[in-house]
Amino acid sequence: MIIVFKPTATVEDKTRLKAQLEARGYQIHASEGVNASLFGVVGDTSALDMNLLLVNEGVEKVMRVQEPFKRANRAFHPEDSIVNVAGVPIGGKKIQVIAGPCSVESIEQITAVAQDVKASGATLLRGGAFKPRTSPYSFQGLKELGLDYLKAAREATGLPIVTEIMSADKIERFVEDVDLIQVGARNMQNFELLKELGKTNKPILLKRGLSATIEEWIMSAEYIMAGGNDNVILCERGIRTFEHYTRNTLDLSAIPAVKKLSHLPVVVDPSHAAGLWWMVEPLAKAAVAVGADGLLIEVHNNPECALCDGAQSLKPARFEKLMGELKGIAQIVGREL
Fold first, then answer.
1. Do 244 and 280 reside in the same domain of the chain?
2. Could you tell me if 39 and 93 lie in one domain?
3. What is the pTM of this model?
């Protein structure tokens, strides 16, 4: 349920109503925007009489929300959210680019790539320390050592680091060491992990599941937000369809759809979507044109010898060229990169 206040509503009006609703067991999500002030009421509101709520002098109107997600709902928060990642804003006018190798392989490798992508304009560094792989015989990442190497690359370049968490027992280490915690597609509906991440205040990059609907994806964000952590960024990385030519099928229609339904920022991962390096560039351009708030792009200095996903990684020179082309597209759609 949404309660919209009149412009003349006082702080006392809102405080009094908030106390009344909380006394009945409801959670209140307050939103103070430029043009509107409202309460999002979370809980079973079927017993709430809308007409009685309108008795409050400060209340303009009351609306019931049909979607199952509440905190992530644009109706609860009409203005776009901006998530601060170690000083880098995700959302708003500027498009941020997160770049780096699929896997951290050595301190020399991750530091060299970090320096290259920063020079080209990337504002965050990605790199997998813990790697979920389809085959148990594939490279599983350097784990804790990989986190140490990422921290060293951050120290060398100043780029905030992004890496994927696999299980709740690593949360304490990730909260301490990682700037943006990534939840991978396979863990999008690992609800116990999402609940634990909801207890932190760390920014979370939530990737869409392999076959998840848009509603299921936003509901996973709701799990994190319901725990009190509103710092959620959604990531479209392609979904599984009948098509096998590409690794996944990039659902660009999801970006405007999510923007209509939710206030959360959305980034796009064209690397995992296509699985083919030569498709990354056109897909990245299309993502910017359709309204993405950021890009997650794999860059490797020697993809032919990469331990993971070399086929979808750009070399630093191609990444630099792409960044220049993306700036022109961003300008056309009224954004900055």
1. yes
2. no
3. 0.90
